[in-house]
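Quick one, T. Sequence first:
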Amino acid sequence: METAGTVAGPPFLGRDRSMCSHTPACPDVHDSNCCRAHVVSDRSGQGWCRLCNGIILFDDGHYLTPDGHDEVVGLPA
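Structure tokens:
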């Protein structure tokens, strides 16, 4: 259900750097160090966490970007 000022769908889609309140700001999803962003939702019991920049980081070293691309931590895109 939507209310005034909200958007339907997952809250991490469409995020931009201006939404990060960390100092220094978390790395952008396109930066090579994107997986160093702060954890904002820890689901380590399920094998994943959501980072401030919208990335879903899995315990096996893979991550999903907000636009749906699957990457491996440490390998070039």
